[in-house]
Amino acid sequence: MKDQLIVFDTTLRDGEQSPGASMTREEKLRIARQLERMRVDVIEAGFPAASNGDFESVRAIAEVIKESTVCALARANENDIRRAGEAIRPAARGRIHTFIATSPIHMEKKLRMTPDEVVQQAVRAIGWAKEYTDDIEFSAEDAGRSDIDFLCRIFEAVIEAGAKTINVPDTVGYNVPEQYAATIRTLIERVPDSGKVIWSVHCHNDLGLAVANSLAAVMAGARQIECTINGLGERAGNAALEELVMAVRTRQDVFPCDTRIDATQIVPASKLVSGVTGFPVQPNKAIVGANAFAHESGIHQDGVLKHRETYEIMRAEEVGWGANKLVLGKHSGRNAFRSRLQEIGIVVDSEDQLNHAFARFKELADKKHEIFDEDLQALMSDEQVTPDHEYFRLLASRFHSETGETPQAELTISVGGQETRTRSDGSGPVDAAFKAIEAVAKSGTELLLYSVNAITTGTDAQGEVTVRLAQEGKVVNGQGADTDIIVASAKAYLNALNKLHNKFEKLNPQV
Ligand code: KIV
Ligand code: ZN
């Protein structure tokens, strides 16, 4: 029997720390459900002490996720730990992940604490966390630049205090594989009772080594890998889940362990995270890039046709490519629609929402004859992000674009329930649509990102648009999908405005 390698996903916490990747509670719930479907062992759902929004998101995830452990991050202080403990209270399995920095530079310049004080604080943190759960993870922030003797000392102390998982983060992505593996090996050899805990790794990608460092550490005895979908994360990101999982699975001849991950859920997870955050996946990205399994050269194509394994070390279907089989069409009924939603894990809150979504499915099926799982995902995410009660809603649109003429957009928008007509011209129809919306919304926001992706193949595919807006230091992503990309763009812009509106409304109800 091989050891189990625990997959700890931190897309919703470290991933969300990427500038511009902030997610709403509903988006986090959708991602958490997909991670659970993929059989991720631990979902780090957020940092509850950071804001009320973070607290609520972790709590909502703890309420619905049953199979994966739901983890909350906390600095090693009483307030953070109590917030984390309260947030995970509803979880079937809840973990508190507490951390304190251990490198000389962090202790001296950031914490302004002596090494003795740091050890003392870490031990007290474990004590507070034990009031909520036995499943406690301790991280030595910037372990990659910490003194090995000091790491041994602090880890011995927190293990004695009750920590069950010991994480050794390369916080600034400074390590190289041999060195990082040696650190893990030394810690396991030298720390008393090291066999009673799980050794975990958390690598950042500043030198492009996050995956290599994590895998070297697994060879040295680590049995938990911390990672994110698409490698999302602070600065250059974290180790990519899909690369770690598939490296270990494909090279079972060299790795002494394997994960429980259902790899066919990898590509849907990648698309979901990319759609929600607006961070596109580069075409040549391993496993989840559009070209990851495409063979261009004649010699390769010939080889693959004769015998697949000549140039392919994994099968595209194994990681969820090609799962976009035709599922429904314009003649499909309400029951088929409902059961396919269930099969791909989309939860419909009420019969009303189902009826509404089914009507929109029929409209889509009229425009686009073949409906794939990705279309359903986009349709339902649109349905969930633009419900009837949203402040801004697109009711109708007309665009004009002709050679030699200035493009124009005419929109009818519901603003707080009031039907409003607006029009503008622009350098193109998308620009005109955004200006028309701004003429009524007067949000004064800055457009940080505009991106369009085809959801499936073919010219009748739906375009999925992401719009990132900034207003007074707040950054939100809006999404919209439609077979008409100008309409999708207008929907995405309005979705981003709704998110800003909801944020301000919650903070200050009279605004
Ligand atoms: O990179 C890091 O050190 C972290 C810790 C909080 C684990 O994200
Ligand atoms: Zn990190």
UniProtKB/TrEMBL annotation:
Its cofactor is Mn(2+). It comes from the Bacteria. Pfam families: HCS_D2, HMGL-like, LeuA_dimer. Gene3D superfamilies: 1.10.238.260, 3.30.160.270, Aldolase class I. Keywords: Acyltransferase, Amino-acid biosynthesis, Branched-chain amino acid biosynthesis, Cytoplasm, Leucine biosynthesis, Manganese, Metal-binding, Transferase. Pathway: Amino-acid biosynthesis; L-leucine biosynthesis; L-leucine from 3-methyl-2-oxobutanoate: step 1/4. It is an enzyme of class 2 (transferase). Its EC number is 2.3.3.13. Residues 5-267 form the Pyruvate carboxyltransferase domain. Mn(2+) binds at D14, H202, H204, N238. GO terms for molecular function: 2-isopropylmalate synthase activity. Residues 393-511 are annotated as: Regulatory domain. It catalyses: 3-methyl-2-oxobutanoate + acetyl-CoA + H2O = (2S)-2-isopropylmalate + CoA + H(+). Catalyzes the condensation of the acetyl group of acetyl-CoA with 3-methyl-2-oxobutanoate (2-ketoisovalerate) to form 3-carboxy-3-hydroxy-4-methylpentanoate (2-isopropylmalate). Belongs to the alpha-IPM synthase/homocitrate synthase family. LeuA type 1 subfamily. Homodimer. This is 2-isopropylmalate synthase. The gene is leuA.
